[in-house]
Amino acid sequence: MSVVHRLSAGWLVDHLSFINQCGYEICDSLANPGGVALRPSVTSSEYHATSTFPATSSRDGPGLGHAVGETEGKTVKTRYVFREEFFDISKPHIAAAPEQQLLQGYPEVSFAEIKASSSAEEPREGTKSGGDDSVAGARKQKRKRKCVFNQGELDALEYHTKIRKLIWEGTLHLVQEGLKSGFLHHATTELSCGKNVAPGHVDCGLAELCEMAKQFPAVNDSDHPAVHVLDDETSSPEQDLLSCVTENNSNCAKIVVLMGQKYLVPPKSSFLLSDISRLQPLLNYKKKYDVIVIDPPWENKSVKRSNRYSHLSSWQIKQIPVAALAAPDCLIVTWVTNRQKHLRFVKDELYPHWSVKTLAEWYWVKITRSGEFVLPLDSFHKKPYEVLILGRVQGSVKEAQRKSEDLLPIPDHKLIVSIPCGLHSHKPPLTVLAEFVKPDVECLELFARNLQPGWTSWGNEVLKFQHVGYFTVLRNEN
Questions:
Q1: How much of the chain exceeds pLDDT 70, in percent?
Q2: Which pLDDT score is estimated for 62?
């Protein structure tokens, strides 16, 4: 399980362990076409797949790009593990003042004090450790802001003031448990701000591929299968992967090749690679889901300026056909940025539009390996937490009365605390939801960037973090 500790405040989870327990084992030699030999690295006895803290290290394994062939008289299995350096968050991105560090105790501050510190924050954040004083000074002057807040900023500060004690105290209790168990480790040197060194991302071009797919000839639904089942072939026509849901029903991982790039598909998972204009194959799949997790590409100024990520307007997000995908009493979980505009939109417009009743707010809190917040808790522009809004699809009054006894209550204000992945928008698994739903439910993630066993995933970058470049190859000979 990815849950390391469970307390009344919430859960401390191990994201890396969850990925490596997803069963990324290729069961035959066809997994690596080309017949290139792989030098031995780690045997099965050295890989503790059932451990809460698996002893995997990408530093001990071979380099990427190695393939596995058959050795004489032996069957070769290939195990892929996620590269642990992507989770090597050893120090905060911005150092907090000593009195604001998590383990120093909770500092009581008022809304006015947070507001005052926020107005003076940017020049302090502009200084990186080890930088030239003159450059730092110039950056201070350049980034200094006027002490004036717009209404959105005031709303965000007020919201933060209300939840900061909950987040501080709950995170502290979970971190203390993590330090006791050895999952987290006390920092050996004084905390300082700086960049955590991590390998760069792999540019897969999946979103561009979805744009290209719009030029494909229209598929006749009556003639085209709704499902493409992966077999032992590693190559599938791009049109098959873009025009219907792809399933891996086996107990082993599979590799698919798209535009010459290889992607791992975990066992018992399914996905649709498309943009929002090509959702029909997911509807043709004719499944109703008991849990739907949504991570919308929210529109914001920085996204517009950078032009690096696609985004959707609020109107476009409302058009997602949740009613056609949700089973009765479906649990809906939506990731929300720290902008109050988006939080209010989900609660006041989006959920009512989908006939969803808001039940709870949860918070994902990001910490370092030593248990400190990755950003100061009272940082103005970025916070070390993100919000999840949980709700349930509402049926008729009679249905609600009849089924209320069967539904497990969803608690409010829970924390999910974890060391975040260094890759942008690689969210932690929501395995803790299993405590509040019945076994064997159908689960769907919308706007996904990775796959999970037992889940259907959809998005225009749904295979992004499944690229083999994010994994290390290990070999197990039987």
A1: 65
A2: 31
| 128/70 Cα distance (integer angstroms) | 51
Q: Helices marked H in 188-279 — which ranges? A: 206-213, 238-243
Q: Report the alpha-carbon distance of residue 75 to residue 17 in Å, rounded.
A: 26
Taking alpha carbons only, the member of 130, 62, 131, 82 closest to residue 422 is 82
**What is the spatial distance between Cα 437 and Cα 330, in angstroms, rounded to a whole number?**
10
**Most confident segment among 66-75, 139-148, 293-302, 357-366:** 357-366
User: Buried b vs exposed e over 439-451: b needs ≥16 C-beta within 10 Å?
Assistant: eeebbbbbbbbbb
Q: Please give the Cα distance from 475 to 40 (Å, whole number).
A: 6
Longest dimension (CA), the chain: 74
Query: For residues 35 and 256, which has the higher predicted lDDT (pLDDT)?
Result: 256
Closest CA to 465 of 457, 475, 474: 457
Mapping DSSP to helix (H, G, I), strand (E, B) and coil, where does residue 393 land?
strand
373 CB neighbour count, 10 Å cutoff = 26
Greater model confidence, 48 or 465: 465
Half-sphere exposure of 461 (CA within 13 A, CB side): 19
Sheet holding 269-273, edge to edge: 3-7, 10-13, 414-418, 356-366, 385-393, 326-336, 289-294, 443-446, 455-459, 269-273, 245-248, 227-229
423 pLDDT higher than 50? yes
Beta pairing partners, 393: 356
Q: How far is CA 333 from CA 171, 290, 292, 296, 453, in A?
A: 21, 11, 6, 11, 18
CA distances in angstroms from 124 to 78, 90, 127, 248, listed in the order given: 48, 21, 6, 50
